Amino acid sequence: MLDVLVIGAGPVGLACALEAQRRGLQVAVVDKGALVNSIVGYPYNMEFFSTPELLEIGGYPFPTYHYKPLREDALDYYQRVARAENLVLRLHERVLSMSGEQGNFLVTTDKGSIPARNVVVATGFYDLPNPLGVPGEDLPHVSHYYREPYLHVAQRVVVIGAKNSSAKAALQLTRAGAQVTLLVRGPEVSDSVKYWIRPDLVNRIKEGKITAHFNTTITAIRPDAVEILTPEGPREVPTDYVYALTGYHPDEALLGRLGVEPDPADEARAPLFDPATHETTNPGVFVAGTVCGGRATSRWFIENGRHHAQLIAAHLAASVPA
Questions:
Q1: What letter would DSSP give residue 280?
Q2: Domain boundary, last residue among 244, 276, 302
């Protein structure tokens, strides 16, 4: 039986696994996707907002030629850490349910069962987009994930949202030759957009290189257009492709099956946990990383979430029988 099963093979999940393993515990990591699956899904050549030392885990230096590392730098770094630590990885294996109690959990996956004394949930939030809830959202030319601009040269592209992801996508698409329309629910580009991105986007809108509609509600998506409601009335925006970059949220159904309860006083439905140990109200089940913030996905990042690993591992090492 494992001492610790870590669910989620992202940077924080890997940090939890290696910290526990270094303390003599028997550990495995399970993930329904690839190693650091969220980063695999990031746009090609995406630049992190953080400098490399803020993304390091386990004391391993993060070498890069860039002041801020690229997606590809991070993919290489984290797989090197996982190999250096000889972590037991069960990738492309989806967790379905869990039974039992602390000291005797049985986690059921689509490939079998995993017994474990304790479980750490580090599942992040990037796999579940926030839906628009409008007709046509499931059409094949609509995506909640942006990868690169070059598929859309000379196309009409609608980008929905006005935070960092949508701002960067709109700028890249425009510079690659797409005709971009930005649809924004609020009155302006969000103040949360990074200070070196926001002026670029605002100026491209002023120049007319990007068309923007603010205070806009999406009412439907058709194969050839997006229907919107603006302060001036209903409109149609002709389009060939739609990027609905409206954010993401944790897998609350999975959290429920793992016995992780949300805080009823928190609108973001963040899990209830002890901040000193990250143990939830279900004894033996811990949360780490961005999932700790619930739907408030800007509370925790790699930079601060990686430190959860030491808290959890220290508590487990003191409580698991030798």
A1: B
A2: 244
